[in-house]
Write a structure and sequence with these properties.
Blueprint lengths: L1 H12 L4 E14 L3 E14 L9 E10 L4 E10 L5 E11 L2 E3 L12 E19 L2 E17 L16 E13 L10 E11 L9 E13 L4 E12 L27 E11 L10 E13 L11 E13 L4 E9 L4 E7 L4
Antiparallel strand pairs: 1-2, 2-3, 3-4, 4-5, 5-7, 6-7, 7-8, 8-9, 9-10, 10-11, 11-12, 12-13, 13-14, 14-15, 15-16, 16-17
Length: about 350
């Protein structure tokens, strides 16, 4: 947490030395999980005067959300790029008060009645990337995560402490990884690919209340059909080696749009995602407007042998894009998703992958 705050202060203090770009937009969405939700997302970007033009701009993204179900979330995400291009440091500071429903761990029945609970979370995530060769990087990762259950439903599994994570707990984890990145842009790639393998380990020796490791594999590919059209494909696999609090298990709803976050969670997860992206115009204001068609699929299981075609969950939909900064397509996205059991509507910053 202290390192993340230092990064933010360094970036903030540097604004007096650099030309800045600032943008802020309202957010509105609706889903069964949140009801009507509103808030703001803001972007601040700048670059130091002596930096080469090819170095990405320093940036700070912040987001505030509040829903009709009295859910509140605040996120602050600063990013720093070194002058020589060797280092990239990103942080995510997050506070979340989020009354929700718990449907259990596993490939549960979607129509199952959930038990109501109110968690409060404070977390900080630090991601350091060091270039070691052309397109190759090594990663250093750390996370602090503290969770409290302020309310639980009487007689439920969470009140009875029968589920890992149903008590107040703290985690401190460290990890590493390797990344191959040949994308032509980090904000809106139109060609190239990224392959990343990383892990985080949480242990009582660090002060964590749980001992487990989580491995993450990501592979994405981007194809330009024309100057204005892109096909984007992405796959992800997450492996948790032993019992972990349910809050830190993979949540399928975070990958497969239209599903609530809490409905399908388990120790292992894979997802496959695809998007058709287009910015059809090149005239003044219209060049900021783009559109997306998407199809997501995946599942979560306790053991790798449990993966099966019968338990695959899919969603599809369309999206609208507005480029906050046109030169590198830093976008606000609006996605409307549908699945067999549900639909969703969300606004967020940056591409889904």
């Amino acid at each position: 947490m202290r390192i993340c705050v230092v990064i933010f202060m360094l970036l903030f203090n540097s604004l007096i030395m650099a030309q800045t770009e600032i943008a802020a937009y309202p957010q509105f969405s609706y889903s069964d999980e949140t009801g009507f939700m509103g808030g703001f997302i803001s972007f601040l970007r700048f670059q130091f005067d002596d930096y080469p033009t090819e170095i990405p701009k320093q940036n700070i993204t912040s987001q505030i959300l509040y829903s009709s179900k009295k859910q509140f979330n605040f996120s602050l995400m600063p990013a720093y790029f070194s002058r020589n291009g060797f280092y990239q440091i990103e942080a995510d500071l997050d506070y979340r008060y989020w009354p929700s429903e718990f449907f259990g761990v596993g490939n549960t029945d979607y129509d199952k009645e959930g038990e109501k609970f109110t968690p409060q979370k404070i977390s900080s995530y630090l991601h350091v990337k060091r270039k070691i060769a052309r397109n190759w990087y090594i990663l250093a990762l750390s996370e602090f995560y503290h969770n409290e259950l302020l309310k639980t439903q009487e007689g439920g599994d969470l009140e009875n402490n029968s589920i890992p994570g149903s008590e107040d707990f703290s985690l401190l984890g460290f990890g590493s990884g390797i990344q191959f990145d040949r994308r032509n842009s980090t904000t809106y790639p139109t060609s190239g690919e990224i392959i990343k393998f990383s892990f985080l380990g949480y242990n009582s020796a660090f002060g964590s209340d749980y001992n487990f490791m989580q491995f993450n594999f990501l592979a994405s590919k981007f194809f330009s059909l024309t100057e204005k059209q892109v096909i984007a494909l992405s796959s992800k696999f997450i492996y948790t080696d032993t019992a972990a609090p349910f809050q830190k298990l993979p949540h399928l709803g975070e990958e497969v749009r239209a599903y609530p976050d809490e409905i399908f969670i388990d120790e292992k997860m894979y997802s496959l995602r695809s998007e058709y992206r287009i910015f059809p115009w090149r005239r003044k204001f219209l060049e900021r407007l783009g559109f997306v068609l998407f199809f997501d699929t995946g599942q979560t299981v306790a053991q790798i042998d449990d993966f099966s075609r019968e338990n695959i969950h899919c969603s599809y939909g369309a999206g609208f894009r507005y480029s906050v900064f046109v030169e590198d397509r830093f976008n606000v996205r609006l996605d409307v998703g549908f699945c067999k059991e549900n639909s969703s509507f969300e606004i967020s910053g940056g591409e889904a992958f």
